[in-house]
Amino acid sequence: MTMQTGERTSGRLLGLGVVAAGLVVMVVALVAAGGAPKPLPAGLTGAGTPVSWAVPVLRLLADVAAIATGGAVLAAAVLLPATDGKLGKQGLRACQDAAVTAGIWAVASIGGLLTTASVIIGVPMSQLAARAGDAGSLNQVRALAVAVVFTAVLAVVLSACRTVATARVALVLTAAALTGPLLTGHGAIGGGATFWSVLATSSLIVHVFSATAWIGGLGSLLRYGRDHVEAVEKFSRLALVCAIAIGTTGLLTAEIHLGGREDGWGLITQWVTSGYGALVLAKAVAFALLVWIGWRHRRATLPALAANQPAAFWRLAAGELILMTVAVGLAVALSRTP
Hints:
It is a multi-pass membrane protein. The chain has 11 helices and 2 strands, in the order ααββααααααααα. By secondary structure, the chain is an all-alpha fold.
């Protein structure tokens, strides 16, 4: 019992550390890259600075909750052992936790919906109800509303999840909830279904799916898979695929936005001369470090884990998870940076 209590405490501390790291990095990145909300000139009214800051904060909370949900569902549906199609003890625990994080994801998305509408329309939250028609016409608001519906349904499905088949249905719902907001962000270049907008959006969807599986899957291993070496081996193979997909799509999406469409590849110039490019470069550095950590896992800690010496693997995995959340904070800042 004492050991279990200690594991729960360390898990909570790691979770708080992960969220805090992402939040601090996001704020610093927004300020440094020029994406931070700015006070309105005298005489003009708008949503207000606190509401403007609430948009990226709620986005980060929603993203972290989405990653936690996706990782827990992935663990239950794919990674953790099951018997005759029924989830084991840890699989059931993963689904119960995912039901909670899906609820948090839904609430954060509702908050993001309201604050985003307030900022785009340019009115205080107290006046938003009077502009409900305008808010409902915004693509960003509609996408977030769809995400809220899917996450709410997901929370209900997960609360009653007892089988692998249901967990796989929840995995599909998670993917659907992730997709909606991606269709109205930076990927929709210039509006309309142009070649570059379709390419950028498709690349971004693959990027986010892969990141959710990689980060969420690792977090789920730390929480549910400590006694399941086979689950770690399955995740290791999946992580390699995710890393390749993230690196490829991240480079492609960044270059489309940094001038690759019209002005030639922006790798040499805008990656170091614009705030957006600087954040892309910072994400690339974080990604390179994560690839190195993955190499260390395969070379040293996975063999040690197989030899019943797990300490080094779990320590490195905890540090890896924090670095991943730093990358998530950079990604949220990137989505708010011109």
